Amino acid sequence: MSEDECSVRRKKENQCGNDNVINLRQGQEQFFLSFTGQYEKKMLTGAKIEQIRNGKVIAELPYDFENSAASNVIKLNDQLSLHTTDSLKIRFNDEKEVILYDFKNTPDYGGKRFLGCSFGSYKVGQKSMETKNAYLYIY
Fold this sequence. Notes:
Blueprint: H1 3-17, E1 32-35, E2 48-53, E3 56-60, E4 63-65, E5 73-76, E6 87-91, E7 97-110, E8 113-124, E9 127-130, E10 135-138
């Protein structure tokens, strides 16, 4: 990659980092939460998912399971307007919870062509995570 291409790419990354609202890629209207590792065996039925903005719960998010209640993947039913400063708190039946935060848009490329900014990363605890096709992985 040439120095000019690197400079353009950095500008796009900065542009996406300045977005306040998380963008989904075209054709992706919903978020999915996939529980693996230490969370895979958690009983997800009856879990509570809250969207928090500025320290206040603004919504309790309805969800379904991707395939069945035995699934470890939750599909959020709302057209979620997620801001970069929001957090999602997931409380399990055993009262343990996990918080997702620090949502970021990242540049989306098709080949070498810049397609726009879309949801690219978030944090769970101290771990930085990348999204894959609107799936948020929690492990």
